[in-house]
Amino acid sequence: MTASSPPQEHYTSDIVGAQVGVPGAGLHAYFTKDLLHPPMVADTEMWADGEQWWRGSRDHTLDVGSLARLVPGEHVLDIGGGVGGPARLLAEHYGVRVTSVTNSVAHATTHRRITERHPQFRETVRVHVADCQRELPPGPYDVAISINMIYQVADHQAAFTRVFEALRPDGRFVVDDWMLTPLADDRDVERLSAHFRYPHFTHTDRIEHELLAAGFPPAEAILDLGHIGRGPMAEHFEHQMRSYFAPRVLADWPGDPHVLPGRPAYGKLMLDQFIAAVNLTLELYRDHRMTYRRLLVRKPR
Predict the structure, then answer these.
(1) In what order do the strands lie in the sheet with 167-180?
(2) What is the rounded CA–CA span in Å between residue 135 and residue 132?
(3) Does the predicted model carry a pTM greater than 0.90?
């Protein structure tokens, strides 16, 4: 997707997330409920117990809010907010107002449906459908966050510029995402794109240049979380997928495309594809070709 092209909708027929009440979330609805992003926290107990993965995803989101130094009453822009899990959590925990942006109508529909069930969020959490490379809902905002979605954005600098323009002077911006290191090559990007659909991964040696070009000064803080992908996540991910999550997914989506062709979804196929995709990232973490980073920048006064 380029900055001038319309958003592409990949979630309209998501019957998998819909099975557990979160259409648009896909298999992630089983893993992290409505939070969607990976639980990149250094918590071996959590990684070793699939029942706690949703808590890890929750803690991940709160860690982003902590680095952003959220203060009650502030207005937060959540870019790529998915089905609204991070927005609702940040509003509840930090007492902030959150405006989420997604380019997925399906995500926005689920976001609104879940939010409207909870009266406490009706005045504090909102969602807009927009392409962050082209426009954002009018601010100004005190804080902007982006969690695990920049790899889906073709023009990082355009998106970061829109964020810069939307922030108040002294506003903070936290970018939290997986990033390629200088050791990665084109073949790594091809392999990732085959699994994750998007090729737009930023690089650890480029993201600060992209932010500087958008108007931000050098980062105030950079946290590297790659050790999680080389440690407890690598140790426990596949075992928990097959021992904890597989029985439920297979019960909901039985069968095999070769034995029962024409069914809407197949649990084993989905699980095998997801495990292969994440195992690729674990291989890249292990070889230091990929890492996971969280950066804080601040718009000048």
Answers:
(1) 125-129, 97-102, 75-79, 141-147, 167-180, 290-298, 221-224
(2) 5
(3) yes
Q: How far apart are CA 178 and CA 230, in angstroms?
A: 13
Residue identified by tokens 């997604």 is 102
**Is the predicted pLDDT of residue 7 greater than 50, yes or no?**
no
Which residues make Cβ contacts (< 8 Å) with residue 198, sequence separation at least 6? 151, 152
Domain 15-181+192-225+290-298 has CATH 3.40.50.150: yes
Task: Give yes or no for residue 9 having a pLDDT over 50.
Answer: no
pLDDT digits (tens, 9 = 90+) for 18-63: 898 888 888 999 999 888 888 999 999 999 999 999 999 999 999 9
pLDDT value at residue 259: 87
